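Structure tokens please, single chain.
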Amino acid sequence: MKDKIIAKATDLFLKLGFKSVTMDDIACEMCISKKTIYKYFCNKEILIAETTEIVHKAIHQSIDTIVAKNHNAIEENFEIRKMFKEMFKTGEASPAYQLRKHYPEIYDKVMSREINECNAVFKQNIEKGIEQGLYRKDISIVTYVGFYYTLIFSINGNTSSENKAKELELQALEYHTRAMATPKGIIELEKQLLHFNI
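Here you go.
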């Protein structure tokens, strides 16, 4: 039952936002009593903390699956962006924005978990792109990882609309790629932009 509650809560939080969904809403959706939820989670914050952990794991498993497909570096970034688009395709409220605004302690824990994993993915991607001749050899990998990380997490933490966040993330990816790309990389970027629908 605990897993079912987490699954339903995750679904509702991502669709409607962490603040908007109440314990009553989850109980009602599951046709169970609120008492049953409180048997496993003594408050909403603990339930949110567990759901964000599940989402974190799901995101990074999906990223690992994409990386394992051995796309070129630019295509890989666009595939990851598509995955995020699919994963958060419902709802207008940005989950990250609501989490930061209403549950800052949980947001900070989520962000500290994300920093190392995301930075490792960004670094690996840049190294791959340089090897493939898509990114310039003379760039400072650490600096560009920092730039991209700051851009993406600033968008997620400060944009209340999920649709607006997606649009800005795609623009950030284009900006990031153009800053690093060789002429060969620009051709690949244009090809990916052509096939990517917002």
